[in-house]
Write a structure and sequence with these properties.
With 502 residues, this protein is of the alpha+beta class. It has twelve helices and 18 strands.
Length: 502
């Protein structure tokens, strides 16, 4: 074949490719929607990659999305636009081989869109984010400081449920359990425990099935003046044998790179080195001093993160298998706050059938949450920030609640467990109605000495009176005073009262 024939063959091939491509359609197979606190996300699942055009119309407010080479729209009758600015979604064919999707709105929004290529189980997608212009008020410790008895503030704990919305995270071995559901359940259990603990205030970064951008998560925590940041995740591996909890803090090498990046990019974020007592903005000082300040702050943050992680691991050791018994160094965006101790907690492996089933159960989620909260309380009790209720509790001899249960691990014996938790073998057996010393791995033992029954002890909450507590537990006011050596009826938030037996 001569060169002229080759050129003709190439031209014909290219022409056929162009003609063929004009007939390839990118059907919209499904539409999904999620509502986040500050925006609404719609995801259009496509059968193939295509181009799109997005623009806004006013009077009335609408968003128009033209999807090229698309011939149909999936079923949208079940889409839930509740609590979002979207009133309805409608579609019609375009003259030039495509479809036009119109979103009717109740308020003006700031739209943003991007495409994602096929990836694993996902096909091509068009993602449309509609950001609210009228932002909902964010209650922070800065604008409405938490005030308790004698102006003692709460410790604010940011809780981040990993993944969410169209991002399911890791999937279980049978693809039925999604990381986003497990992490949200555990995060909510942590929130509920902190809500019932005087001196603590949880702050959920995600409290629903939606996605919060990685870069935004620590910033939301910083704006709310959180004291610590906990990101909850679950892992997956290629095989089924991996199991156990791993906790990560930021690595020193990543911290150095991050500090250099902030300085090089002249990052101008207000309160970058923020704190309850005051703020330092790195834009206000020269580069050398700014880098020094960042290095010192980040070193403190990493040190405290490791201490906090160690406390949580010590608590988790009683209810879960630890894959690593020491805090690991990691390179995660969420851990890069220079002034907030931050941890990423991998609660287990969904690729492991046994662990996946446990992670999906309410009881195990509650056990993990209880252990995590115990670790947090132990951390703050050791070195409580000045001006907090926890600092006042420590000054007045009020200690964190002791663990009330223990999950038996391989190699444990009943006598060793009794010795570890400062009780006798007879008391431990009686608390668990055991007739012998036989125990099995995974068995959860109730520990004597803790609040075994609802009427063993009561922690004072804001607004309670001694007479109301006596009435609640059906004991006399005088016996309640006697049991707690009270000369009057004055009680304080956070104080633990012993409830006399009937």
């Amino acid at each position: 074949m001569n060169s002229r024939s080759k050129q003709l063959t190439i031209l014909i091939t290219l022409s056929l490719a162009v003609i063929f491509s004009s007939f390839v359609t990118a059907d919209v197979e499904a539409v999904r929607v999620w509502r986040a606190p500050d925006h609404t996300r719609l995801v259009f699942d496509l059968s193939a990659a295509t181009e799109y055009d997005l623009f806004s119309l006013a009077d009335p407010e609408r968003i128009v999305i033209d999807i090229e080479n698309a011939s149909s729209l999936g079923d949208v009758t079940d889409l839930d636009f509740a609590d979002s600015p979207v009133l309805s979604l409608r579609a019609a064919p375009l003259d030039d081989n495509g479809i036009r999707v119109v979103l009717d709105l109740s308020a003006k929004v700031n739209p943003s869109a991007f495409t994602l290529g096929a990836n694993g189980e996902y096909r091509d997608r068009l993602v449309v984010d509609l950001y609210d212009l009228e932002t909902r008020p964010l209650v922070t410790a800065r604008t409405t400081p938490a005030v308790q008895l004698e102006d003692k503030r709460d410790l604010v704990v940011a809780i981040v449920a990993g993944h969410g919305g169209e991002d399911p995270g890791a999937l279980s071995y049978d693809r039925k359990i999604m990381e986003k559901d497990v992490t949200l359940a555990i995060a909510r259990a942590i929130r509920d425990r902190l809500n019932s603990t005087p001196g603590y205030k949880p702050m959920m970064i995600r409290d629903g099935d939606y996605t919060v951008k990685l870069q935004d998560r620590p910033n939301i925590g910083r704006e709310s003046r959180v004291d610590i940041y906990l990101s909850i995740h679950a892992d997956s591996a290629s095989g089924r044998s991996a199991q156990g909890v791993t906790i990560y803090a930021l690595s020193g090498e990543t911290a150095d790179r991050e500090n250099a990046r902030r300085i090089a990019q002249k990052e101008n974020r207000a309160d970058l080195l923020g704190g309850i007592e005051g703020d330092t903005n790195i834009a206000d000082v020269d580069d050398d001093l700014a880098l020094t300040l960042l290095d010192l702050s980040m070193a403190w943050s990493i040190e405290q993160s490791v201490i906090l992680g160690s406390k949580i691991l010590a608590s988790l050791d009683s209810v879960a298998k630890l894959r690593r018994d020491k805090v690991q160094a990691g390179n995660f965006w969420e851990l890069r706050s220079p002034d907030i101790p931050s941890l990423l907690i991998e609660t287990g492996y969904l690729s492991n059938p046994d662990e996946a089933q446990k992670l999906a159960t309410r009881s195990y989620q509650e056990q993990l949450a209880a252990a995590i909260v115990d670790g947090v309380m132990n951390y703050f009790h050791d070195a409580p920030p000045v001006g907090t209720l926890v600092a006042w509790q420590k000054e007045n001899g009020i200690k964190p609640a002791a663990p009330t249960s223990y999950a038996v691990k391989r190699g444990d014996s009943l006598s060793e467990i009794a010795q570890r938790f400062g009780t006798s073998l007879a008391e431990l057996k009686a608390s668990n109605q055991l007739t012998s010393n036989t125990i099995h791995v995974g068995q959860v033992l109730a520990l004597p000495g803790g609040p075994v029954s609802a009427a063993a002890a009561h922690t004072i909450r804001r607004g309670e009176t001694l007479s109301e507590i006596a009435q609640r537990y059906q004991v006399s006011l005088s016996s309640l005073r006697t049991a707690n050596k009270l000369s009057g009826d004055r009680i304080m938030v956070g104080q633990v009262l012993q409830i006399p037996s009937l």
